[in-house]
Amino acid sequence: MRSLAAFALVSVAMLETPTVFTVAERPLEWDELSEETFDPRWMLPAAPPEGQPNLLAEMEQLADLRFGLDAPDGTRLETLGDFLAASRGMDFEQRSAWWNQLQAQRPELFAEWGSRLFLLTFDDFLVGLDWKPSKEHARDGIIEGQQWTLGEEAGAPWSELSGDVRLNQAALWIDADLAAIKQVENDYASYPDHVGADFEAIYPLENTAWRGRDAERGEFSGLRLYFRCDLPFPFSDYECDLHMLNRRDARGRLVTDIYSTSADFHWLAGRDVFLPLFTSGGEPAGHLLVRVYGFDLAGVPDRDHHRMDALRASVGNLKRLAQAVPTATDTAPDAIPRYAIRGVR
User: Fold this and answer.
1) Residue 255 contacts residue 248 (beta carbons within 8 Å)
2) Cβ distance 308 to 288 under 8 Å?
3) What are the two backbone dihedrals, phi and then psi, of residue 284, each rounded to the nearest 5 degrees?
4) Which positions ≥6 away from 33 have C-beta within 8 Å?
5) Pairing of β 69-70 and β 199-204
6) What span, in angstroms and rounded, lies between the C-alpha atoms of 109 and 236?
7) Cα–Cα distance between 103 and 94 in angstroms, integer?
8) Of 132, 209, 247, 325, which sits 20 to 30 A from 186 (CA to CA)?
9) Euclidean distance between CA atoms 145 and 155, whole angstroms
C-alpha cells in the first residue's frame, strides 16, 4: 500500500506542467562541421544508383512541364504552380468537376501525369479530422515512390553497414513558404500533439544549434535533436540523437539532411529537397517536398510499412501545420529561413 507521502508526490507530479524552452544558434564555419555537429560523410547520395527509381527526378520533370490548359474561370494554366494554385479552396466535388473539365482538354497529359497530379491535388483527407498516418488513402496528398537501395558504390560509411540500406521516397505539395515550413519543423514543443505521434520525449539538445555562411554554398544551419519513442509490446522504446543540416544545393534549392548513429539504430538517414513552385505570373505557389528516408532499428523487426508510416506521419503533419502559418517575406535565394527552435521538458 502506498504511503500518504507517496500519494502526495504523485499529486505534485500530476500538477507539474512541461517547460517550453528555446535554443539559440551559434556561429559555425562549414569546415568546422564534424561528428559533434553534422558529419557530411553521412549525407545520402544526390541520386540513387543508375537504374533505380528516382522520385526527385520525376518531380523535377513534372515541375518543368507546360500544361496548356484553360480553367473554367478563364484562367490560363501553364505551370504546375498555376495548376495547383487554381485548385485552392475547392471541396472534393468542386475539385472533381474542375479536374474533369481540364482532363477533357488534354487527355494525353493526364494519361501520362494524371496519377501523380491527382495525388498532389486531392488532399482533402490529409487535412481532415479522420487522417491517420498509418492508413494510406487515395486523397492524402502524398505520392509514395518506389524504394531504392544503396550499394558499395555509395562508399564509406554506407558500404561498411551490414544488410541492405533501403530508402523510401515520397513527395507532396506544401502550399506554404520556406519560413513557415521551417518554423513548423523546428517547433519540437508541439510534436507530441502531432497526429499519430508516439513521442515520450523530444527536444533540441542545448548548445548544438548553429548557423553559418560559406562563400561557395551560401548560408547553412543545423542542430541536434533528441527524441524517445514508444514501441509496441514486447519492446519498450528507442532513443535517437538526430543530426540535421539545412543547406542550398547547386540549383539554389533548400535541402535538409539528417542522420543518426545512435546505438538503437543500425542506421538512420534522410534528405528533403524543396522544389519552389510559381505561377506563370511569377507568384509563389508553395513547394514540392521530395523526401528520401530510411532506418533500421537495432533488435526490432521493423518492416517497410513501418518506415513508410513514419515518413507519411512526418510529411503529413508538416503540410497540415505549415499551410496554416501566414505567408512571410520570402527568403533570399542563398539563405536559410530564420526560425525559432523550441523544445519542451
Assistant:
1) yes
2) no
3) -60, 140
4) 39, 40, 245
5) unpaired
6) 50
7) 14
8) 132
9) 24
| Strand ranges inside the chain, DSSP E | 20-22, 26-27, 69-70, 76-77, 143-150, 165-174, 199-204, 210-214, 218-230, 237-248, 254-260, 265-278, 284-297, 342-344
Q: Which residues are bridge partners to 77 per DSSP?
A: 69
Residue 276 corresponds to which cell in the numbers above? 519552389
Query: In 3-state terms, what secondary structure has residue 105?
Result: helix
Question: What Å distances lie between residue 92 and 115, 118, 122, CA to CA?
Answer: 16, 12, 8
Torsion of CA 69, 74, 75, 76, to 10 degrees: 30
Question: What angle do helix axes 107-121 and 92-105 make, rounded to 10 degrees?
Answer: 160
Kindly report the backbone phi and psi dihedral angles of residue 32, in degrees, each rounded to the nearest multiple of 5, phi listed first: -90, -5
Q: What is the pTM of this model?
A: 0.92
**CB within 8 Å of 142: residues ≥ 6 apart:** 119, 126, 136, 170, 171, 172, 312, 315, 316
CA distance 285 to 177: 8
Please name the residues in contact with 283: beta carbons below 8 A apart, sequence gap of 6 or more.
Answer: 81, 85
Cell readout for 41 is 560523410
Note down pLDDT in tens along the chain; length 345 residues. Answer: 334 444 444 444 444 677 899 999 999 999 999 999 999 999 999 999 999 999 999 999 999 999 999 999 999 999 999 999 999 999 999 999 999 999 999 999 999 999 999 999 999 999 999 999 988 899 999 999 999 999 888 888 998 987 789 999 999 999 999 999 999 999 999 999 999 998 999 999 989 999 999 999 999 999 999 999 987 666 678 999 999 999 999 999 999 999 999 999 999 999 999 999 999 999 999 999 999 999 999 888 777 888 899 999 999 999 999 999 987 766 777 899 999 999 988
Q: What share of the chain is helix, strand, coil (3-state, %, to 5)?
A: 30, 30, 40
Query: Which value, to the nearest 10 degrees, does the dihedral of the CA atoms of residues 103, 107, 108, 111 take?
Result: 70
- The contacts of residue 37 (CB under 8 Å, 6+ apart) are 28, 208, 210, 222, 224, 243
Peptide bond into 234 cis (omega under 30): yes
98 vs 105, 122, 141, 305, CA distance in Å? 11, 12, 17, 34
